[in-house]
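note to self: the first set is below, dont mix up w the second
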Amino acid sequence: MMPVELHDAVVTLRPWTLQDAPWYVECTMDPEVQRFTTDPPTLTAEDVAAAISALAVHPERLAYLVADRASGQRLGNLALDRADDVGDVSYWIAAAARGRGVATRALELLAAAAFEHLDLRKLRLWAHAANTASRRVAERAGFRRDPARDQTRAIKGETWPTVAYVRLR
């Protein structure tokens, strides 16, 4: 079982609350989040609240709000979907928090805890081929390119070229 909260000296990963839903929606309206995530532009706080509530009945899905450890300021989203001994990771960081290493720290925290507490053998993630920032985060967090799993995906009515990364236990 994963700890409810994870943290290092800079960031905290904590469970989402219903009070966080409007902030999530606000962040996903950022053009960069829309450009590189599957969140639709029509997302509402009610949709997010329903997704947060559904986490309680889906133990294979973990979702964390990334926050500043000192201030508690919300910084981003990090999720892990598990199937057997493999986890698929996704993340985004709010515009105001980008460029500070937050995503890398959060991804490293999640990976270490997932390998320790969930007995996963591998973590995977995909990034839009043009999302160089996300690709750098993955590499800094110990993920390596897995070109055999690159694929095009139908997302939000478009065809996205995605590149794959993997981190082994």
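second set (the one i keep forgetting abt)
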Amino acid sequence: MIFVQVDESLEAAEGLAEKYQAVLERAAQQTLQQTGADADAETTLVLSDDARLQALNRQFLGIDAPTDVLSFVGGDTDPDSDQLYLGDVIVSLPRAQAQAAAGGYPIQDELQLLVVHGVLHLLGYDHADEGEKAKMWAIQAEILNSLGCQARA
């Protein structure tokens, strides 16, 4: 199951979860499907702001700068559902909006890119070296193509 949350810190947060929920869920589910991951695994997708992502980036990665997406791997079984909890993907909505505008494509496409990227990290994909990056970018491109997404990393 995919859970979608919106931080209260976002201006006009009310209604954002409903506005983007289907797009976010579809991107996460497509990523699970195309990678052969457990489709019943659970994850939480959070829309937040630059300040929260900067604070998390500083706290967990030692980088004092905002970023567009962060992933926090879970890996435990949820005692209530008995399903694997993959973890959390936190997306900066303002950064996604700016990147979509700069790229000339809809915000939904940028959100899909960021969710796919984040879920791939939850599944163990990385881009720390060129070999890993090539593998991650290839599967990411396949997933984005299947979603009809214009955004690219």
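remember for set 2: The domain at 2-147 is CATH 3.40.390.30 (Collagenase (Catalytic Domain)).
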